[in-house]
Amino acid sequence: MIRYPCGHCGLPRSGTRVQCACIPPRVWERPDTRAALAHRDLGALLRVLREQTPLSQIALAQMTGASQATISKLLNGQATFRRSERIALALEGLGAPTIQAAEATPPGPAPAAATSFPLTLPEFLRQAAELWASDLHSYPLPGPEPSPDHVKSVALAWLAARPEPLLPRDHGTKGQVSETDVAAIGRTCVLFTQLAHEFGGAHARTSAVQYLHSEIGPLLQSDYTAEKGQRLFAACARFTAQTGAMAEDAGAHHLARRYFLQSLTFAHLGSDRLLAAHALILLSHHANLLGQFGHALELARIATAGALDEATPGVRAMLAAGRARALASLSDEHACARALYEMEEALQHTERQGGPEWITSFAGSEAALQLAHCFHDLGQGRRAIEHTRRFLSTAPRSHRRSRTIAGLLQASAHLRTTDADPETASAVARTTIQRAGHLRSARVRVCLTRLRTDLQPYAANHAAKELEEFLAEALLARDIRGRVNSRPAERSRSNRAGNILRFSQRNGNQKTGSTARKRQDQTLGNHPTQT
């Protein structure tokens, strides 16, 4: 079973030092819990969880993906889930043990074997259109969810396969694909990318899926020459990759992986090895986010092996950064250093040798953020701080999401130095959150949750206390659906609403951490008036 981060606390289920502890393991061992799982009785299971854990109805809604009203009806026996897919997703969201969740999910068709990659063009387009319609209208998703093993097998099949010339399509019934059509897809993709940078991936994600369904879908059924077809499929590869990134940032991980695999196939059919490698790097970063570090490294290595012969310096830098991120998560400092050296060497040649349009952003400020992530994960706080400052000094102001991630990363890095500084960490975090406003981004929310976890050992510190009081009202501390994302310590408290109320009442009576905040703008590398 694929383990997603917890929808309540935002922490991974496994693979990291700090993991979700919303539901203690002992709860899953209870006879009544096992009986509820065996009978696929979600209402009975939720009643056990309410009795044995401090989770509120809102918390259970966040974990299962249901509304709070639906959770209330399930608890009271007024509703039930009948669709097996919906039950399986709810169990996955609750983090039910793999063996029990597998029992609760009826057997489905086996994932496609690696030898079937790529699918025939008609079958692939049929499956693509089915996914877009299902996502847009919230229908059950077609077929089984791609497992890490299946993703790896497809990646290896791509590595062994060579693109075949795309045949022209001439059915004489749907019109001809024009250069304007292809250019419009590229321009629209850029617009959605800009929206995600500024407002978060959850913003306008449905509009991106609608564009796939209503605009790109008909074009794929139109006539085209072989050359126009290749350009069309490459544009579709870029657009589906961006749609997958938006799904990931909306917390829809079960959709993100499907869109990234679509991007891989579109790129392959369009004979674009570099775009296909880009899709694999996105899959690698996605696996890294989910705590599947070994899987992330395998995908990054496959991408490198499949594209290195054709890679421009910018693409080589992207491939090296993908490996470095996974190696840092695995705490392999020496191998990570080699990959980062390779990345920086490649970046020195980007201006002279150019590269595809979509790689230009990485060749700029994005590389500094990748360095900061790696040093942060390796526990090298000072070097992480250095690179977050470098990123913040060069990244566009419109990239609010990346700038917010960098600021929260910098705050956390202040706790990963030999002289950990919770005052500065809290001040940097507060300034970052104030400048961020309201971002609809699951990635930002995970960064914030991890920072609050890092600050727990300093709970008695005055600045850390003030930050928690501030977060009780901050928009960024709410999840992408607008609900308050409680701090990790509150998972063990029954009266969470009372805690938030007390924080709000004390907010105007405590002294501000003025000494720490004197340094916050200098630390972030910005002026106080900048937004």
Automatic annotation (TrEMBL):
Residues 46-79 form the HTH cro/C1-type domain. One of its GO terms (molecular function) is DNA binding. Pfam families: HTH_31. Residues 502-515, 522-531 have a biased composition (Polar residues). It comes from Nocardiopsis kunsanensis. This is HTH cro/C1-type domain-containing protein. Residues 485-531 are annotated as: Disordered.
